[in-house]
Amino acid sequence: MISFVCGIVSEALPNSIVVDVGGVGYEVLVPLSTYDALNPRVGDKIKLKTHLHVRENIQVLYGFATDEERDIFRLLVDRVSGIGPATAIALLSGIRVEDFKHAVVAGDVKVIASAKGVGKKTAERIVLELKDKVGLGSTWGAVQSGTTTAAAADAELALVALGFKQTEARKALVPLVEGNPGAATEDLIREALRHISPH
Questions:
Q1: CB–CB of 80/122 below 8 Å?
Q2: Which helix (H) or strand (E) holds 43?
Q3: For residue 52, which phi and psi values (nearest 5 degrees)?
Q4: Which helix (H) or strand (E) holds 49?
Q5: What pairing do the DSSP bridges indicate for beta strands 45-54 and 4-13?
Q6: Closest by alpha carbon to 64, among 33, 96, 87?
Q7: Contact between 98 and 125 (Cβ < 8 Å)
Q8: DSSP one-letter code for 199
Q9: Number of alpha carbons in the 13 Å side-chain half-sphere of residue 150
Q10: Which of 44, 146, 172, 184 is most buried (CB neighbours < 10 A)?
Q11: pLDDT digit string (tens) for 38-84?
Q12: 150-184 burial, b for 16+ CB within 10 Å, e for fewer?
């Protein structure tokens, strides 16, 4: 798996950036949110968090400005039935990560359906599967109400996106957060991985 690419911008379009890494050009498809956040220009040095999506006859590299964007992408592609990379990219292009989380917590189908290429039925499925089946709606709601930290919620999202069950992720994170409420997301993920194993 390619975790990130770091190099010089060779080409930059709102949906695609070509990164020159040691003389090899990697075409990375990006959501508009990433393009806007990084504002890449030819010749700039850039680092993108990446996800390599492999299908029968094609390999596509997707890039993101933040771990959180990549985690939402992976969650949508891996955990919501009928959602492919193109729809996940459209969602991230049309809705900020925080607004997406709020919409899932509130069951606000209209906000999710406002993203280009995402219909009402798809939006309903996203809310249903992320809120009820995966259980992240309650975690994001807890952040909004102040009963858990944003770092803990981001760590839980990352662990779920990596394929761990939400209940296992939360069980591993709760004592870590209680022991160190100010812990950073990366530290929580690292410590939690020592206590849980993939299902």
A1: no
A2: none
A3: -95, 115
A4: strand 45-54
A5: antiparallel
A6: 33
A7: no
A8: -
A9: 5
A10: 172
A11: 999 999 999 999 999 988 888 999 999 998 899 889 989 988 888 99
A12: ebbbbbbbbbbbeebebebbbebbeebbeeeeebe
Q: What is the mean pLDDT of the chain?
A: 86
Buried b (16+ CB within 10 A) or exposed e, 56-71: eeeeebbbbbebbbbb
What pTM does this model have?
A: 0.75
CA–CA dist 151, 136 (Å, integer)? 14
Domains parsed from the chain with CATH numbers: 4-64 (2.40.50.140), 67-134 (1.10.150.20), 147-199 (1.10.8.10)
Given this model, what pLDDT does residue 150 score?
80
| DSSP structural state of residue 53 | E
Residue 86 CB neighbours (<10 A): 12
Q: How far apart are the first and last CA of the chain?
A: 19
Give the pLDDT band of residue 135 (cuts 50, 70, 90): low
As given in the structure block, the two tokens for residue 85 are 């990379």
Tell me, what amino acid is at 174? V
Q: Which two tokens stand for residue 188?
A: 């929580």
Residue 13 tokens, joined = 């379009």
